[in-house]
């Protein structure tokens, strides 16, 4: 039985600790929580008790080393803010633990170098939790492309839409500061760039990108004629009429994890999406050439009226078209099955000289189109060998963020960027 410790006890951590103490009790043991905020750790323990599990030891972030020495986890699960992932990944490896980290693995090239070096020095293992690889429709795309259904893939058009609930949420939280998250082309698009790497079984070679803050932020709201502003929703009269406002006191989990905990660290989970201080983009376009020769055109919109994606592959023998509509979701530490849950999906195979064929894919239970349960079983259960190679390593984590990192450089410098010039992996 493997022992696990979790560092970072916000909304995403619940995805892991609930599974560990309910579904995988026979193969896994949760031994410790670590965080900068004691209130949040106490809430995590209350959730464990509600699942019928006893409370576990808690450690302040400054006592991370002591936690590892005293509780002796085999693996450390990292679910902190993105800019600190590298610190805990590297130190866990140095202390003899393997690591499971939330995406993105980290946010820039220097931090990525630290992780790659630590893996080489220690011989430890880092897994990145790319649950979208495990979604049945994304697995089917991989199977169709790898079988040669459309021949050699020459181009990909990929459009991802975040709606005014899920998309807006990145502009309320710590993600809105690019120093914390690397921007959405790193924090969110790491999923999407990883999927393209996985689907094509290739790596990005050159990247060019454009992007701006066009919808969120105070200046954009002023241009649209808005006159009523606020810094955060809690206690604000103006926020009562704002459909973008998040009211922490109306959600039990959000209140306990953030509103009741802010006295310790001053973090406000409910900042106005039309306030000042937002340094990430909400409208982005990226072009990528891969080592295989394929070219990707990618767009990300964070204020769309729908949630989901469209992706089309053009090959030497035909075309594959995919459209997926997902349910709206705000990360509140509540029902994880809602995250990425499907409303509809359509996969059409169009042979070069044949009639289009609709590809049927069985629906799986759980979040991210059924990918979450499969990922969790792969991490914590008695998983069979995955012939599709969906388990993502630190190399996969690096290649996915390097597309976004190169895109950030391209937007800043106004030029094409070679990925190997950013970091050679």
UniProtKB/TrEMBL annotation:
<protein>
    <recommendedName>
        <fullName>Gfo/Idh/MocA-like oxidoreductase N-terminal domain-containing protein</fullName>
    </recommendedName>
</protein>
<dbReference type="Pfam" id="PF01408">
    <property type="entry name" value="GFO_IDH_MocA"/>
</dbReference>
<dbReference type="GO" id="GO:0000166">
    <property type="term" value="F:nucleotide binding"/>
</dbReference>
<dbReference type="InterPro" id="IPR000683">
    <property type="entry name" value="Gfo/Idh/MocA-like_OxRdtase_N"/>
</dbReference>
<feature type="domain" description="Gfo/Idh/MocA-like oxidoreductase C-terminal">
    <location>
        <begin position="143"/>
        <end position="419"/>
    </location>
</feature>
<dbReference type="InterPro" id="IPR051450">
    <property type="entry name" value="Gfo/Idh/MocA_Oxidoreductases"/>
</dbReference>
<dbReference type="Pfam" id="PF02894">
    <property type="entry name" value="GFO_IDH_MocA_C"/>
</dbReference>
<dbReference type="InterPro" id="IPR036291">
    <property type="entry name" value="NAD(P)-bd_dom_sf"/>
</dbReference>
<dbReference type="InterPro" id="IPR004104">
    <property type="entry name" value="Gfo/Idh/MocA-like_OxRdtase_C"/>
</dbReference>
<feature type="domain" description="Gfo/Idh/MocA-like oxidoreductase N-terminal">
    <location>
        <begin position="3"/>
        <end position="130"/>
    </location>
</feature>
